Amino acid sequence: MAVAVAAAAALGLAFLLYHLCFPLFISPLAKIPGPNAFAFTRWRLALEDFRGTRTRTIHILHKKYGPVVRLGPSEVSFNSVSALRTIYGAGSGFERTSFYNMFQVYGRKNMFSFFSGREHSERKKMFANAYAKSAMLKGANAAMVEAKVRQYLDLIARQEGSSEIFASLHYFSLDAITDFLYGKYGRTSCLEGSEADCALVNDIVDVARRRLSWFTVHLPRFTAWLYSRTGLFGRVARYFYPMQLPTTYTGIRRHAMIACQEFACGSPAAEPSETVEQTSPFIAKLWKHHCSRKTNGGLDDVDIASECADHLLAGIDTTSDTLMFLIWSLSRSESRKFQQKLIDEVRSISHESLNPYDIPTVETSDKLPYVNAVIKETLRLYAPLPASEPRQASTATVIDGYHIPAGTTVSISPYILHRNPKVFPNPTQFNPDRWIDPSENTVEMNRWFWAFSSGSRMCIGVHLAMAEMTTLVTAVYRKYTTTTVGDFDKVSPGITSRYEVFYDEGCSGVKEHECHIRFDKLAT
Predict the structure, then answer these.
(1) Which residues fall within 8 angstroms of residue 237, CB to CB, at 6 or more apart?
(2) 24 DSSP 8-state letter
(3) Is 276 helix (H, G, I), strand (E, B) or coil?
(4) Pairing mode, if any, of strands 75-78 and 94-96?
(5) Where do runs of H (alpha helix) occur along 268-382?
(6) Residue 226 in contact with residue 237, Cβ under 8 Å?
(7) pLDDT tens for residues 375-427?
(8) What predicted TM-score, i.e. pTM, was given to this entire model?
(9) What is the biggest distance separating any 2 CA atoms in the chain, rounded to whole angstroms?
(10) In 22-88, which ranges are continuous DSSP H helix?
């Protein structure tokens, strides 16, 4: 008996030692540099997520250990163009991870949350042409963008001087994306003062959304169980919610579902026999693939609602946050020369390049070199999605000289790529001139620029976003100079992205979801 107990104890000890030693000494990833605490357990990185310091911590680790860093027992971060091509290039074989489950809407996967490249590709083929650059530069989409820009200028004029642009730019991007997606069946009117529509922006600024994101990713089953409790236990469970009901995006998702229902009930384009016009909203183009029009398969109402809602959510913060940081950066006293260069360029536009309402056309704005340089520098320094984009190796491979077993999570962060001092001198300095200076290595900088991802998973809305940004920036600085208000010359605005708050770290402080700017009319 004693021998059996001793043998069992020995086996248990051996099992324990193996699992303690495996991550640090036996794992194929053991040779990859990084702190032992991260290599030993995934909860060490999860702690940084909880603190809201994930991306900055990984950046520090890359500075210390180099371009390849081990972040967990089965997770590795890279910071090189070669790894970027290997992991995110078209046909790479690296699939999305369970992290992307948090982006499902109404319990349905959409193009963004599909794990497999095959499913993603099949869905993307249904509507990729709707987002083509040619579809944005002219026609109905260009007219829509120019109309929203005009409404934004009207809003600025009504506010007489100082404006809080975090909110107003969210109104602009929300009005634009809802018009593009739903047309009259779901477009919002924030810029025209609709209180109900403006309230939708409040749905996305609750700081508790960061905590909910953490629980959804790291404790998904517990989180789902907690929110599903009812009765007495449900009332007790509320005290433990990461975010009180209604949770983030509830209002926007409700709006998206109602818009889809309005379209299904009221649009002739929803009828199986109807053709879809080029001027029709995105949902009409997607409805061509509705199961009522397909003899085999097709999308049902909830699939279409989920897809549209995902595009809606993706099209709000990304554009508005970039525009906010752009205007704030140009408005600071240290950036006056950059603002003047921009003003000189946009005021040189000929009258023929304006629409009947004196708004620069989308096509004209797209071609302005300094406008594009300012936007690109803003995206480099303040990428709207700065954190790691995780992928999983489907087969064993070698990346940057290291063996990566199948099932390993690998990732790259735009924030870290864009701060490589060997590629971007003085990387934390806002300097649009770096993109047009012939002495700069712009070819190499463009290879490292990754604000819109790359490969088959590249942001499908890039051309719509650029149309909105180039046209609004051109229109604003044709009419106004901008300066910071109060302490915003030294204090940075802050944005929420997943678990973190991002801001300019060179400033003395940060004010989340707030940015006050003064608009002064230029002499005509």
Answers:
(1) 226, 227, 229
(2) I
(3) coil
(4) unpaired
(5) 282-287, 301-314, 317-331, 336-346, 362-366, 369-381
(6) yes
(7) 999 999 999 999 999 999 999 999 999 999 999 999 999 999 999 999 999 99
(8) 0.93
(9) 98
(10) 36-40, 43-51, 54-65, 81-88
Residue pair 405/70 in contact by the 8 Å Cβ criterion: no
Residues paired with 497 in a beta bridge: 500
Top-ranked range on mean pLDDT: pick from 117-126, 206-215, 515-524: 515-524
R_g over Cα of the chain? 25
Give CA torsion, residues 278, 283, 285, 287, to 10 deg.
Answer: -140
Tokens found for residue 144: 């829509």
Beta bridge partners of 480: 521
Contacts of 440 (CB under 8 A, 6+ apart): 434
Residue 162 pairs in a beta bridge with 518
Cα–Cα distance, 460 to 131 (Å, whole number): 7
User: Which region holds residue 77: left if phi is over 0, alpha if psi is between -120 and 50, else beta?
Assistant: beta
- Which is the CATH superfamily of the domain at 125-388+422-521? Cytochrome P450 (1.10.630.10)
Q: From the CB of residue 46, how many other CB atoms can be counted at a distance below 10 Å?
A: 17
Q: 515: annotated binding-site residue?
A: no
Distance CA(58)–CA(68), nearest Å, equals 11
- Of 286, 323, 310, the residue nearest 183 (C-alpha): 286
Q: Which residue has the tokens 């929300």?
A: 174
Q: For 320-337, what is the mean pLDDT?
A: 98
* Domain residue extents for the chain: 2-114+390-411, 125-388+422-521
- The DSSP element (H or E) to which 141 belongs, if any, is helix 139-159
- The residues near 13 (Cβ < 8 Å, ≥ 6 apart) are none
Fill in the amino acid letter for 173.
Answer: S
Determine the straight-line distance between the first and last CA of the chain, rounded to whole angstroms: 98
Gap between the Cα atoms of 327 and 329, Å rounded:
6
Helix and strand numbers (H, E) in the chain are 23, 13
Residues 419 and 427: their CA atoms lie apart, in Å, by 5
Judge contact between 263 and 283, C-beta under 8 A: yes
* Residue partners of 477: CB distance under 8 A and separation at least 6: 330, 339, 342, 343, 346, 347
Phi, psi of 271 (to 5 degrees): -75, 140
Q: Determine the average pLDDT of the residues in 113-129.
A: 89
**Helices 250-266 and 195-202, interaxial angle, to 10°?**
130
